[in-house]
Amino acid sequence: MTPSTNSTKTHMININSSSNDSDQPNKPLLQKSPEPSDELSNFQISLKWCALDHSTSLGKFISYFTFILLTLVVPILTSLTLKLPSKDPTSFNKLVQLPESGLAAIAFFTLSAFFRNYGLGQLLFLDGLQEDTFSVRRGYTREVDKAFKCLAWILLPSCFLELAHKVIFFTTVKVSLPYLSPSVPLNSIVFVLVLASWLYRTGVFLLVCILFRLTCELQILRFEGLHKFFEGYDSNSKVIFQEHVRIRKQLWVTSHRYRFFIIGCWFTITVSQFAALLLVLASKAEKTFLNSGDLVVCSAVELSGLFLCLMEAARMTHRAQGIVAIATRWHMLLTCSSAAGLDSDKQGKGQSPEANGGCNGESDNDSSDISTSVSPHEPSSFQTRQALVTYLGHNHGGITLFGFALDRGMLHTIFAFEFSLVLWVLSKVVVLS
Question: Fewer CB under 10 Å: which end of the chain, C or N?
Fold first, then answer.
């Protein structure tokens, strides 16, 4: 397959003609077929169920009210009003309240900033999707479906475990509120509020992680489409340059949008996990599902969301860095084939007496050979390809955090840092015990 400018325009004409038949020329491209429209509507439904619809003033008020109630009020009240058995060390479950609310706050204000400045189409880069090939659009539709499957794979098992833990937990505790006597209905009301609070905080955090993953997947698909531009000998360096500039700009925008979210989540999860590790290992109390279930479930969800972001960013950066090797190989193949053609022409015409003549005659024959065997665009084509390779070599970064590429080397550095903290915590535990 040898993509070119003409082939790309052909795809766009065909799709636009089909859209005109459906009388939907002004809608986003992802909404021109029933499947993408359904997948995009899933995001809108998810935002409404999470009380994150900021399209109206009423929706914004409900969103902030729900955030304050389920992220701040309910965790504080449950921590103060639950009476626990004296023999049951339940301090482990309280360790998750602060990081859960912190991650939910980071995710909520990230989404609020998104919806205040962009629409859902701009956030998912649906506006620029019209300029992509059909394979990229079709692949993006599949990735939208995979995004919700990934969210379900993380959220549903943890929700079942959390539900089982809360059922067991509320059968052993009593709710103590001023001027109210402990009763079964009061326990049931608090049980529903606590479960709703956990589901809200977890859902908001994972929703931003899924949005980031989906954005990275779109750029990966575009890089795969860009790779096909290097197949064949009629590839246009100008078209490749313009496409890479477009992808590079969107990568910069993505890095700028999500950098505070990634750094804030990484810092919050690191501090909370190692504080919990230090307290749990230093404690001599018995660890059971009753007093440690919240800690296990919430830690698994938090680490899953963080790893989802880091791995997807590293995968995206790896694709962006790999374009340099592909461009260099493409430039080398074209240069070698052009040089081989020149050598064969020189050898074929070098047998004539005129080619074996004096210096002036040889110079005239060589210049005439070059003018006939090489097209007039060949020197400029070589220089253009060389400039393109040089440009790609200096602009091959993917997802960055304040200038630092979030690639596999960064993941190795983060792993070494986290492992060093684990060893430090273990050393402190040995000293304390």
Answer: N
